[in-house]
Amino acid sequence: MADFRTAIAKSLSEALKGQLTGKEVLELIEVPPQKEMGDYSFPAFKLAAKMKKSPKEIAEQIAKSIKLPPEIKEVKLAGPYVNFFVNEEVLATGTLEKILKEKKNFGRKKASRDKIIIEYCQANTHKDFHIGHVRNICLGESIARIFEAEGEKVIRMNYEGDVGPHVSKCLWAYMNQFKGKEPKVNKGRWLGQVYAYGAKQVKENEDLEETMRKMVIQLERGDKKLNELWKKTRKWSLDYFESIYRQLGIKFDVYAFESQMEKRGIEIANQLHKTGFCHRDDGALLVDLNEYGLNKFIILKRDGAALYSTKDLANAEYKFKKLKAKRTIVLTGSEQKFYFQQLIKTIELLNEGRQQYCETTHAPYELVMLKEGKMSSRDGIVVSYTDLYEKAFEKAMQEVKARHKEWGAKKSEETAKHIALAAIKFGMLHQDKNQTIHFGIEDSLKMAGETGPFVQYSYARARSILRKAGKTGKKADFSLLADESEKNLISLLAGFPEVIEESKNILSAHKLTHYLIDVASSFNTFYHKQPVLQSGKELKGARLDLVEATTIVLNNGLELLNIKALEEM
């Protein structure tokens, strides 16, 4: 309905006689919470001070003077709001013709030349890949796809922690407890258990903390024996992670590691000290951010060892100079909010005068919690991705076999795989990223309600109708789609481009998931109420086009969530 919004904005701008710019008017137009209130609404509050009138008086003045474009049927007042009702025949024809013409491109904008890096996943080697990582990777991939739909040129980057205390704990445990006991398969996942043991020993014996610290320094200085073990176990982790990425259908354009940023980060910190940008305090290098309410930001430890901040500065330089990107969005847990405020302010100060580092936006998300409480790979309280997927697949396979006894093993397994992945991905995306997910495995695997499999099933049902109908080959008369169920569905389909744009602006996919549930529910209401294949010839053609338009939008939306639309379920 982007064309309707533009038409309304133009008419409003003319009625307001320059009180607001066209862009300002466009930004103020809203979609009312309830359909009965109209398709669009303009709140008059912002004009009150400028026009020295109450918002209600301004709304009344607009309603009297506005010249309605052909796309709008009528205007109604609701206090300080001017509500617009679209011409349903124009809406139906314009929306369905556009969707059927653009197909996979419906909702997408023209590509931009500028690059933006979406940095996500960031699983640490030498640990297991748990459901907290799943939320990150599902959200990051969906945001990347949403940005691409909005015309952005996206570079997918995975910046992984392959050095630091967690590595030393894993290596220490391997050498002192597990050496020679590694399994023949699934070694990367097994390292998660090794790490958990090492972390537990440190927690119970504080003297080991110093041992771990020395191991970190040994690795940094290139200790041959330790380095060989690090490389071997690191590869186990990376191979394990790569198998998960393939299963999730995710490909990164760039892999970067803390180990490759360490040396350059230390050089940057020392250079900044020489220029006076930071100062030394008790041996450590600090950037004073007190005037911005951000305290002091440590960028190098007193013993000269690198911190996250040291490596992140090198990473920001790498993104700008090597990857040629001016902007980056970094997804991490919300517990890192303050750290990223410090990092972003430091980068802003360094870029004053001449950009040298990639401008950084932090997209924090809340954690995934077990019913027992916060997950911790250190304490072994985790649900691994592998366990989660296997349980989801097992349940999906039971459903598929019960529904389709005639299917062969390969088709059943492939279908169950995509249903299981849809359940997991949708479950991770359906909630606002600023809300904690209280995760229960059984809840995530439900095949009905507000779930990915429900949207998949609605798509499959619509595709079945189209297969039974065959091709009509005749242009339909969309004015025949006059039932409330048909009009509601068309109105929802028209709003797809706006949902994508809003999802980009809020850096979250939850509104897109809710939108797809609404479309699927509306389609099912229409399906149960209207006999598509038994309709008269003219009406049947129009309804089949509506069904096809629905499949296009559902497919396009699921693709933005990295979920496969299934032809049969």
Helix-strand makeup class: alpha/beta
Q: What Rg is obtained from the alpha carbons, in whole angstroms?
A: 28 Å
Q: How many DSSP helices?
A: 21
Average pLDDT over all residues: 92
Taking the sheet with the most strands, its summary is: 5 strands, parallel
**What is the count of β-strands?**
14
Count of the domains: 3
CATH topology of the largest domain: Rossmann fold
Could you give the distance between the termini? 31 Å
* Strand order within the widest beta sheet: 6-5-4-10-11
Q: Which oligomerization state do the chains in this entry correspond to?
A: single chain
Q: What portion of residues is helical? A: 55-70%
CATH classification, class level of the largest domain: Alpha Beta
Which range does the strand content fall in? 5-15%
CATH architecture of the largest domain: 3-Layer(aba) Sandwich
Q: Superfamily at the CATH H level of the largest domain?
A: HUPs
Low-confidence blocks of residues: none
Written overview of the protein:
The chain has 569 residues and is α/β, with parallel strands linked by helices. It has three domains: 2-86, Arginyl tRNA synthetase N-terminal domain (Gyrase A, domain 2, 2-Layer Sandwich); 120-258 and 323-374, HUPs (Rossmann fold); 391-560, Orthogonal Bundle (Isoleucyl-tRNA Synthetase, Domain 1), CATH 1.10.730.10. It has helices at 2-16, 22-28, 48-51, 55-65, 88-102, 131-149, 165-178, 187-204, 207-220, 224-248, 258-274, 308-321, 337-350, 385-403, 409-429, 441-444, 452-469, 484-494, 496-506, 510-529, 537-560; strands at residues 40-43, 72-78, 81-86, 115-119, 153-160, 254-257, 279-281, 284-288, 296-300, 327-333, 359-365, 368-370, 373-374, 437-439. A five-stranded parallel sheet has the order 6-5-4-10-11, sandwiched between helices. It has a three-stranded antiparallel sheet with strand order 1-3-2.
